[in-house]
Amino acid sequence: MGKIEAKNIVKYFQHDGKPLKAIGGVNLTVADGEFVCIVGPSGCGKSTFLRILAGLEKPDDGEILLDGKKLVNTGPDRIMVFQEGALFPWLTVEDNVEYGLKVAGIPEKERHDISKRYLDMMQLSQFANSYTYQLSTGMKQRVAIARALVMDPDVLLMDEPFAALDSQTRDLLLVEMQMIWQKTKKTIIFVTHNVPEAAVLGSRVAVFSHRPSVVKKSLDIDYKRPRVAEDENLGQFEKQILSALRHQGPK
Amino acid sequence: MKANLLGKKIAFYVLIIVVWQGIDSADIWPDNIFPSPIEVGEDLLFGLSDGSLLYGIGTSMWRLIIGLAIAIGGGMLLGIFMARVETVNQTIGSLVLGLQSIPSVAWVPLAILWFGLTDSGIIFVTAIGAIFAVTINTYTGVKNIDPSFIEAARNMGAKGSQLVTTILIPAAFPYMITGFKQGWAFAWRGVIGAELLFSFLGLGFLLNVGRQLNDVSQVIAMMLVIMGIGILIDGFVFKKLEDKVMTKWGLR
After folding, report:
1. Interval B91-102: pLDDT, tens
2. How many angstroms away from the CA of B163 is the closest CA of chain A?
3. Per the domain annotation, does B134 fall within a domain?
4. The domain that contains A59 carries what CATH number?
5. Are residues A110 and A27 in the same domain?
6. In a domain, B241, yes or no
7. Has residue A163 been placed in a domain?
8. Which pLDDT tens digit goes with each residue over A35-61?
9. Is pLDDT of A115 > 80?
10. Does B13 touch chain A (CB under 8 A)?
11. A160 and A101 in one domain?
C-alpha cells in the first residue's frame, strides 16, 4: 500500500540569516497507486516538500503519514529519484541497482535475480557492467529509476528527474514512465517545472503557489494513456495548469 | 612515443654516470671524498652478496609497512570522524593541523624515551609522521562527497558503519589516495630518519655506518637504494592504484 498524506507542512529557509517561510502549510493526500505531479514557480519549495516526504528533511510544522502511520525518518518505503540521479560512480550499473538490496542483506543470488528483472525492464542489460561515466544522461536516469524500483517502495518520489535530458530522450522516458507506473501500480509523486511533462504524466497535478507555498489547485487529468507530449488534446489541461500558475501574487 | 620517452630517460641517466665518472677521472677530489660510480656499484654488489643490504631493505620495509598501515587506518578513522562530527573537527581538527607541522624526526627523542631503542619506537615515528597527511586528505575527501550520495544511501536504508564502508570511504577514495601517497612519502622519510638516529638496523642505520667508517661510497650507495625504493613504490604501488581508481571513476 502507499497512501501518503502531508498535513499542514511548514518549512522555513534561512535567508540572509533570517528565517523565510518557504512552505506555508501544504496539505496533500495521494491515494495508493496515484500518479501525482507537483508543479510550481521556481523557489516555491516543491523539491523541499518532496525531500520532506522522503524524510531527508524535517518540516518545521506538520506531519507526514504513510498508510495512516506517522513517518519520522527516511526509509526504503519511500524511494527518491534525484534530479542528477545520484548514482555512485565507484559502482557498476548492476552494483548501483543492487545497492539497496545489499544494504538490506539480501543474498547475492536473489539480488541478481531482482536486479536483472529491472535492468531488463529499463533496457539496461547490456550496460550492467558499465560504470556510470560511460552512460548518457538518459541512461543514467534509467539506472536511477531501476535502482529505485528494485527496492519495491510503497511510494516513488521523483525530483525533476528528466530536467537535464534532451527532448527526444525525455519523450521516450515519458512514455516509459507511464508504462512503469501501469505495470508496477506504484504511488508516484513527481516534481517538475515542465507543464507539458506534468500533463503527460500525472493522473492529477497539484499546483503550488509562490512562497510561502500552499497547494493552490489540484487538477485531475482524466485522459487515456499512454499519452504523448505532442497530443493536442492535452493542451486544455496544460492551459488550466498554466493559468493556475499565472494567477500568483507578485514575485 | 613511449619508447622515445624511455630512451630519453635512459640517455639522461647514462649521461649522469658518464659525467660522474669524468669528474672522478679528473682527480679534482680524493677518492675518499668523491668516489667513482664503479666504487659505489662495487659497494652495492658487496652489500648484496653478503646479505647485509637485503636485510637492511627488509628491515626498513617491514617497519614502513607496519607504520604506514597504522597511519592509514588511524588517519582514515580520524579524518572521517572530523568530517562527520563538527565537535571533533572543532577540537581535534585544530590539533591535527598543528601536529602535522612537526617533522617526523622531531618525534624521535620522545619515541626513544617512551619505547627505548626498539622497533616500536621507529614504527611510532613512521606512523606519526604519516598519519596526519592521511587524516587531512580523508577529511577533505569526505567533506567533498556529493551530499546526494549520502542522502540516496540513507534513503535506501544504509546507516552507521554501513554508510561509512559503502559510501563515505569509496566516495572519498580519490582524495584518500592522495593522502596515502603523501603519507607514504612522509613514512619513508620517517623510517630512514628514525633509523639514522636510533642506529638500530635498517637502511638508515647502514647509511650511518657508512658515515662512521668514513666510507663515502657506502653512503652514496645507501642513498641510491633509498631513492630507488622510493621510485619503485611511487611508480608501481601508488601510481597504479591511482590510475585504477581514477579510470574506474571516470576522472581521466
Report:
1. 999 999 999 999
2. 9
3. yes
4. 3.40.50.300
5. no
6. no
7. yes
8. 999 999 988 899 999 999 999 999 999
9. yes
10. no
11. no
